[in-house]
Amino acid sequence: MTSIDTITLEVADPAAAERFYATAFGLDTRLRLRAAQEPSTGFRDFTLSLIVSQPANADALIGAALDAGASTLKPATKSLWGYGGVVQAPDGTIWKVATSSKKNTGPATRDFDAIVLLLGVADVSASKRFYVDHGLTVAKSFGRMYAEFEAGSGPVKLGLYRRRALAKDAGVPPEGSGSHRIAVGGAAGSFTDPDGFAWEATSRAGLR
């Protein structure tokens, strides 16, 4: 089964981005960064999420991100599905920190349980078929609204969401153009999906 082995963010200043991610989320060993200057304006059509076990952990990670230079897109709050908030890193990447739990069960930590990459796509059904053809296994599917794939042995789970709905969930306008500023690595090889997201062939060495 195909899985995501690496996530590479393309940033203007890799050293500054590395400091931010190490300080805010402790992602120095699970995220790759590389310099890129391709034009990119507005919404980049994806979000990354850290899934945590309790609200206190979400607050701790969001607070650390804000202290390290992130900006608030959606303040952390309770909702029907749980608790969470959205921040934007200095490099422009949108991060959601969320939990399905509404109550704390222990002291706050900055631990997280999973990383989720959500791609904003034009046609969820068409993109789902594309990824199934490239070896991914569907875990959940809600018609033309949302699809989620099994993570397999990879450290990152992939989901597909309608582009405008994803922008609304992130708290940003849907308009955007230029580079997505992200590359996905996996054993499936090198290809570009229907919405312009690039995959690169990798060995299963895990996220750096």
UniProtKB/TrEMBL annotation:
<dbReference type="InterPro" id="IPR029068">
    <property type="entry name" value="Glyas_Bleomycin-R_OHBP_Dase"/>
</dbReference>
<protein>
    <submittedName>
        <fullName>Glyoxalase</fullName>
    </submittedName>
</protein>
